[in-house]
Specification:
The chain is α/β, with parallel strands linked by helices and about 220 residues long. The chain contains seven helices and twelve strands.
Length: about 220
């Protein structure tokens, strides 16, 4: 399996490059990357990042190896996913491709293994239930939503043929994540349990929560 690590975001809400921020003495990008590099399930990692950038420099310094490469990102998440996919295909055959937000430093190999086991048909994503019930507003009335939405995390794992077909069909559509692009093709995407610790660092307040997770960490 090859992992596309998405690290090209602008960190606008964070106010600085959140991937070079430190948690427990390590940069966020290093924490995210190290898990995949150490995983026996992963053959290669493609990091999609601005070039030149501090993120690209950290990756090059820590993982100067053929198994980890850095490619330039696009103007949107979808275009960065596409850039990562093209880099993966240029490197040769791979059965599965995982897409992961580099700003989620607490993904685990156990989660990755569950996703791989469920992804053989149309792909698999980790999900969490919403923290509170959701309602649909109808004028002055509120109606409970019969089928509750799910909160989708990354990594998201797909067979290579499925994700290639999805991006070929997508054209100029700018989806919010890989699973939305794949879902447009009608592929059956499986779900596995997510992990509340697998938060996406978006605001500076998320660093404090991340420090607490590090202190209590049991993979």
């Amino acid at each position: 399996m090859t992992v596309v690590l998405l690290a090209a975001g602008r960190s606008a809400r964070f106010g600085a490059d959140k991937l070079v921020a430190t948690v427990g003495g390590r940069s966020v990008i290093s924490m995210s990357l190290d898990m995949f590099v150490a995983s026996p399930l992963v053959d290669r990692v493609v990091v999609v990042a601005p070039m030149p950038s501090a993120v690209a420099a950290i990756v090059a310094e820590r993982h100067d190896a053929p198994a980890v490469t850095v490619v330039p990102g696009g103007a949107t998440r979808h275009l960065s996913e596409k850039a990562g996919l093209e880099a993966v295909l240029a490197q040769g055959a791979t059965e599965l491709i995982a897409f992961h937000d580099a700003a989620r430093p607490f993904a685990t190999n156990d989660m990755l293994a569950a996703l791989v086991g469920a992804a053989r048909s149309g792909g698999a994503v980790p999900v969490l239930p919403p923290p509170e019930p959701l309602y649909r507003r109808d004028g002055p009335l509120a109606h409970p939503i019969a089928t509750q939405p799910m909160l989708v995390q990354t990594p998201q794992v797909f067979p290579t043929a499925v994700v290639v077909a999805a991006f070929c069909d997508a054209g100029a559509i700018d989806d919010i994540d890989t699973s939305q692009t794949v879902a447009r093709t009608g592929a059956a995407i499986a779900v596995v349990p997510g992990d509340e610790r697998n938060l996406k660092i978006t605001h500076t307040d998320d660093l404090a929560r991340s420090e607490e997770i590090v202190k209590e960490w049991v993979p």
